[in-house]
From TrEMBL:
Family: Belongs to the glycosyltransferase 2 family.
Keywords: Glycosyltransferase, Membrane, Transferase, Transmembrane, Transmembrane helix
Keyword Cell membrane part of the UniProt annotation: no
Domain NodB homology as annotated: residue spans: 97-284
Any one GO MF annotation of this record: glycosyltransferase activity
SUPFAM superfamilies: Glycoside hydrolase/deacetylase (SSF88713), Nucleotide-diphospho-sugar transferases (SSF53448)
Protein name as catalogued: Glycosyltransferase
Biological process terms in GO annotation: carbohydrate metabolic process
Transmembrane segments: 340-363, 634-658, 664-686
Organism: Streptomyces galbus
Amino acid sequence: MTTTTSSRGRRRAPTRIERAAGRAAALQRPRVILAALLLLALTSVMLLDGYLRAEVGGDQRVRTGASSSEVPDSVLDGGPILTFRGGQATTVSVPDKTIALTFDDGPDPTWTPKVLAVLAKYDVPGTFFLVGSMVSRYPGIVRDLVRQGNEVGIHTFTHVDLSYQSDARVRREITQTQLALAGAAGITTTLFRAPYSSETDAVDNYSWPVYEKLGEEGYTSVFVDTDSDDWKKPGVAKIVRWATPEDGKGASVLFHDAGGERSQTIAALPEYIEKMKAKGYTFTTVSGALEEQRGGARAVGGTGGTGGLQAAHHRATGVTLYEGEALVAAVAVAEWTVPALSVGLMVVGVAVLGRFAMMLVLARRHHRLRNRRRFSWGPAVTRPVSVIVPAYNEKECIANTLESLARSTHPIEVLVVDDGSTDGTSEIARSAADRLGMRNVRIVRQENAGKPAALNHGVRSARHDIVVMMDGDTVFEPDTVRQLVQPFADPRVGAVAGNAKVGNRDTLIGAWQHIEYVMGFNLDRRMYDLLGCMPTIPGAVGAFRREAVLEAGGMSEDTLAEDTDITIALHRAGRQVVYQEHARAWTEAPGSLKQLWSQRYRWSYGTMQALWKHRKSLTDRGPSGRFGRVGMPLVVLFQVVTPVFAPLIDVFTVYSMVFVDFRAALLAWLAVLGVQLLCAAYAFRLDREKYRYLLMMPLQQLAYRQMMYLVLIHSCVTALTGGRLRWQKLKRTGEVGTPAGVSS
């Protein structure tokens, strides 16, 4: 055993590096906040869209047989217009030979413009009781409606029966609709019609307090005298007949311009207007009927598009106007975003299912090809190889690592490259080597320069033409090195990826990572192997031809994912990279969510750096171009794009459960989970792992996967904002012992 020391060191002393890393972490906090804000904004848009799309049903009563003992008889027997001037409930009837034509449930982009066209043709005004959510979605229609001289009233924001709602909910429904009107047309209104209302004699003890409360706030509640029942689609003749008042009486007449298919309404309106005019009727708004009964001027037609305010309208100003415009703008964003996300969801869904299908088919083919009896890489590789162990403050793990290498069935030399450790890693390694009688161990010390520099130092110092790289927290099985180097019998092979496994899998976080390693990493590697575009050789267990690494310029410090960087570089140089499933290594996965975040953040960001660094391969010729046009798109699609947009599946699942169909959404989510379980079970079968860990998979999908999404989004934000990230050392416990002590 020998010890050497390198004097070259291009970076700061460890304590200063730790301080710099702390400053770098502080700079990352705004990006974490930005990533969280992006997710929050997406969630808010989805919730707003779902809230706006609350279904508007038919105009029938919700309850029957309710008592009206608390309602004044003057209201029950009175006219359709209810006011509370001076705090006293007063009803007003529409004057004889007068029609107050009212429409409910709009605006609707299909039917409301057609209704407006009919009214404009006959110069007839209408009073439209609008649903606030529809107003915010179609503000242009409301502007046209008001500009044409029609009157508007409130029909709540979500078309909910207010009788059973709290005072806060009632106020919210009214206020939100007023804001929508302010943002759409710059007005507010004093007219109100409750959903599912009819004539005044239907007012009961449940609904009366609502009318009283709104009356105290200055609202005029409007009921009907004559209901066309057009929502029943009884035919044009019946609609016209049912809407006609008897004996020349005036009436508040109800039609619908939304809430369903309204072609019969559109056909009935011209016939109805002509019939009533022939009988000597005039048409007015609700406000016009009120003014006439109070001795004001009689309104007999539309305003001719003059834009004058109706009596019930008030110009929105100040905070109300600004908040209304903000609401309409937010809804416009939601109206654009949700359909776009729906398309994205379809693309992601196809990509995810396509990936699962590819993994299953190609993994099975890979397993059968590499495990058939006659398969051979060539003559057995028996010559010694060099094992490089970069170590920085690995006092908890380095002894276990060396002990596992002492059991190797293949001849090796071991180079422990101490990258400026301050915890006595070198001394512990030297003591362990002496205790184990390992004369093939060299401990190489250098000032702290980072993992790539440590690996390069090891490659230059290696005595053999094949170098195996492993992390200082990893342990090998006795046969790992032998299995790992056999593919080098094929001269085309430049590097080999081993099978990294989670050793500390007895914790919840460890179990989740175990599932991810077996399914997400090793199943992927089988697929990429057959496609000839393996993107990453894991730092925990990988082997390289020494000359190939040196020709590629060594392990680069350009990215935080030096393993991905060197793997892509070898592909571009025409070297073949393969996966050896039988070369197993046991690594210590992060034991806390904070450390897991740090590790995956570095991996994700480093992968993006490596892909960007090698982007020119997309236009290259030869092996580099082949990887660029096959490997790069697959890696970008499966490791960046799909994971970034995969949260859409969960977001839309929650959205559908809340706003669409809970059962159907749940079944769809369970179906996707079933596909993933199938893939995971097959991956466990190939790796001969115990299936009991798959019991953790549903919880993994609900919790762990969401964290991985956030990590990737955080990485994308960092990349897009031009941020830099330093290497962050993870805290190790040394709980992954020698292979003999690891249970699967």
